Protein: Glyoxylate/hydroxypyruvate reductase HPR3
Organism: Capsicum baccatum
Amino acid sequence: MDQSKTQTNLPELLVINPSPVFIIHQQQFSQKFKLLKAYESPLSTDLFLQTHAQSTKALICYGKSPVTTNILNLLPSLQLVVTASTGFNHIDLDECRSRGIAVANTHDVFSEDTADIGVGLLIDVLRKISAGDRFVRSGNWTANIQYPLGSQLGGKHVGIVGLGNIGLKVATRLEAFGCKISYNSRQEKPVPYKFYPNVGELASNCNVLVICCILTVETRHMIDKDVLKALGKDGILINVARGPIVDEKELVKFLAEGEIAGAGLDVFENEPKVPQELYSLDNVVLTPHRAAFTEEAFSSGFQIILANLEAFFSNKPLISPV
C-alpha cells in the first residue's frame, strides 16, 4: 500500500515538542496519526503552526511544551489538547475552556510509581542510603572513618500536602511502615487521617512533609520560609510534585544551615538547573524528575493518550478529561 496515501487518510496530530512517552511510542503514534512534527521542521515554530493552522484539531504536549495563549492564537481550529502527564499546569486551562477546547491528561497512570519514589526518597534520606553509597565508593569505610547513624521510618508523623491520587498512595504505603499520617488539601476528605487546613500548622505537627499537590497560582512557593521553620531542625521535606511549590532559595538556606534535617527532591524550580549548594550536602537526595519514569507507566500513559485521541476523532467522550 502507498505509505503517503495511507498517511493522508490519517487524522492529524500536532507535536510541538516530543514528550518522553511520545518519543518511546512514536512508531505506534505514526501508525494511527499523521504526525505534524514542529520540532523537526526548518520553519520557526510560529510559522509551522501558521502553516497547519486550519487543519490542526488536536495536539499532544507535556510540561516542557506549554500550551499558552500565544500558541492557541496560532491554532484557530484546535479542538483538543492532550498532555502526556498527570499535571496540566503547563496548559492555559482557562483559555482553552473559553475557546471550547477540550483538555485531557493521563489521569492517574503515573501515580503508583510517583508514590514509590516519594517513599523511596524518604527512606533514602532517613537511612542515608545514597550518602552511604558515596561513603563506600570513596574508600572511607576501609579507612575506618565513622559513619553517622540514620533514623528509622516507623513511627514518624508524616504530613502529606495534597491528598489526591498520589498523596493517597503515599499515605497507604507509609501506613504500612507504621507512620502516622496527617494531611493538608483544598478541602477535608473522608479519610482516617487528621486534616490541617493550614500547611504551616501541618508542618509544625509533623516530622516529614511530602509534597504531592498540583502547581497553581495558589500553591506556588506555598512551602516558604515560615513553613520550613515550622517543620523544624529535625524535619524532612520530600517533593515529588513540582519544584516551584517550594521556595527553593529558602529551602537551600535551611538545608545548608541545618535548620531542617534533610530533603529528597525529584523536582526543582528551574529544571534542569539545580542549586549547586545542594551537591555537597549529604542530607539531600536528588533525582532528575523521574518519579513516573518506568516502562510500565509509559506503556499505560501511551494507552490512555491513544484512547483519548481515538475517542476524540470518533466523536466519543474523552477517557480522562480535565
Q: What stands out?
A: Residues 3 and 106 are 30 Å apart (CA to CA). The domain at 3-109+295-313 is CATH 3.40.50.720 (Rossmann fold). Residues 1-5 have pLDDT under 50 and may be disordered.
